[in-house]
Amino acid sequence: MKIGLIREGKVPPDKRVPFTPAQTEEIQQRFPEVTIVCQESPIRCFEDKEYRDHGISVQADVRDCDVLMGIKEVPIDKLIDNKTYLFFSHTIKKQPYNRTLLQAVLARRIRLIDYEVLKDKLGNRLVAFGRYAGIVGAYNGLWAYGNRYGTFSLRRAHDCFDVNDLKLELRKVKLPPIKIILTGAGRVGKGSMETLDSAGIRKVGVYDFLTRKFDEPVYVQLSSADYHARKEGGAFNREEFHIYPERYTSSFTIFTQVADMLMAGAYWNPKAPVLFTREDMLAPEFKVSVIADITCDIDGSIPSTKHATTIPDPLYDYDPATDQLYPPFSNEKHVTVMAVDNLPCELPRSASEEFGQDLINRVLPLLIHADQDDIIKRATIADQGRLTDAFNYLQDYVDGK
């Protein structure tokens, strides 16, 4: 099997890679039947020379490869007929902006395997960048607070060489005794905890967070059970909440009355109640002044997340009184929002290394040898010009209906 690492073509460019140069050498040692080639690219966080130094052929054309691997969506004019591709296609939710991409995949009889749906039998994702979204998102939240109040100054995350350099930078954080809410306990939540812990911010329990005053900055990590209640009464049921979130109501405002910053890292189901409303933000009891919306659900659970921000321009201010957006730090009554939607791109070397190692350990053996438990099969959206059975629901999307 010949695997080609393709040049990222999406704009703005993404510097991440499926495999680092060292990992490509590891693959060829562990899987002698595999050859890795690398398409020339001036964009990657790793230079072409770094791949050559590990014995990898770097070439302009990868048409002779069996499998082509990238990160973001492949531009339609760069797709090669009858190949197997692995990348994040962002089509499984019927995203309108990628309909033509899926149409082209089918027309060109491409076998499309989407990283997002590579899951084990229990539905756990095998590869993801969530941890680094959390690490960088929480870092950006602290960076935003330091800039808003002038209490400390950090380099931007993308100016750090790797995650270790970023964690050294966190030693500069000097916060007053503020309270920080962190939602989510998955990859994003755990990554955010890494940042907060590295910054020396103490984690406390829900009761203490709500009732005690501290002489140091603290954070609380909330699960869904901490801020949802059944409309009909009774105990919170996690399984029911995941299936029927509309049966629950939010009590999140008890936390916004005592917290200064929110870091949102929990998945939000559109059928679930929002965390809080614009009207809640207008209440004098609402205390949060900085929101790092790591999940970046536009018009979702957080009313101030009106649009995604970018790495070069990561912040804006939201005025709940007018429902309008303004430049950051323009008024002390505004809420400062960080809503960058491609956070792992700020630490591309570290994020790529973890992602690539998971691919090597969890996915490549299935792709090369035997697809145990049909993991590759279940993650295949299209093959031989047709949608696979699991993705037939996308047919009306493909047809433009």
TrEMBL record:
<feature type="domain" description="Alanine dehydrogenase/pyridine nucleotide transhydrogenase N-terminal">
    <location>
        <begin position="4"/>
        <end position="136"/>
    </location>
</feature>
<dbReference type="GO" id="GO:0004754">
    <property type="term" value="F:saccharopine dehydrogenase (NAD+, L-lysine-forming) activity"/>
</dbReference>
<dbReference type="InterPro" id="IPR051168">
    <property type="entry name" value="AASS"/>
</dbReference>
<dbReference type="InterPro" id="IPR007886">
    <property type="entry name" value="AlaDH/PNT_N"/>
</dbReference>
<keyword id="KW-0028">Amino-acid biosynthesis</keyword>
<dbReference type="Pfam" id="PF01262">
    <property type="entry name" value="AlaDh_PNT_C"/>
</dbReference>
<dbReference type="Pfam" id="PF05222">
    <property type="entry name" value="AlaDh_PNT_N"/>
</dbReference>
<feature type="binding site">
    <location>
        <begin position="186"/>
        <end position="187"/>
    </location>
    <ligand>
        <name>NAD(+)</name>
    </ligand>
</feature>
<feature type="binding site">
    <location>
        <position position="226"/>
    </location>
    <ligand>
        <name>NAD(+)</name>
    </ligand>
</feature>
<keyword id="KW-0560">Oxidoreductase</keyword>
<comment type="subunit">
    <text>Monomer.</text>
</comment>
<dbReference type="InterPro" id="IPR027281">
    <property type="entry name" value="Lys1"/>
</dbReference>
<feature type="active site" description="Proton acceptor">
    <location>
        <position position="72"/>
    </location>
</feature>
<feature type="domain" description="Alanine dehydrogenase/pyridine nucleotide transhydrogenase NAD(H)-binding">
    <location>
        <begin position="166"/>
        <end position="339"/>
    </location>
</feature>
<dbReference type="GO" id="GO:0009085">
    <property type="term" value="P:lysine biosynthetic process"/>
</dbReference>
<keyword id="KW-1015">Disulfide bond</keyword>
<feature type="active site" description="Proton donor">
    <location>
        <position position="90"/>
    </location>
</feature>
<feature type="binding site">
    <location>
        <position position="267"/>
    </location>
    <ligand>
        <name>NAD(+)</name>
    </ligand>
</feature>
<dbReference type="InterPro" id="IPR007698">
    <property type="entry name" value="AlaDH/PNT_NAD(H)-bd"/>
</dbReference>
<protein>
    <recommendedName>
        <fullName>Saccharopine dehydrogenase [NAD(+), L-lysine-forming]</fullName>
        <ecNumber>1.5.1.7</ecNumber>
    </recommendedName>
</protein>
<keyword id="KW-0520">NAD</keyword>
<comment type="pathway">
    <text>Amino-acid biosynthesis; L-lysine biosynthesis via AAA pathway; L-lysine from L-alpha-aminoadipate (fungal route): step 3/3.</text>
</comment>
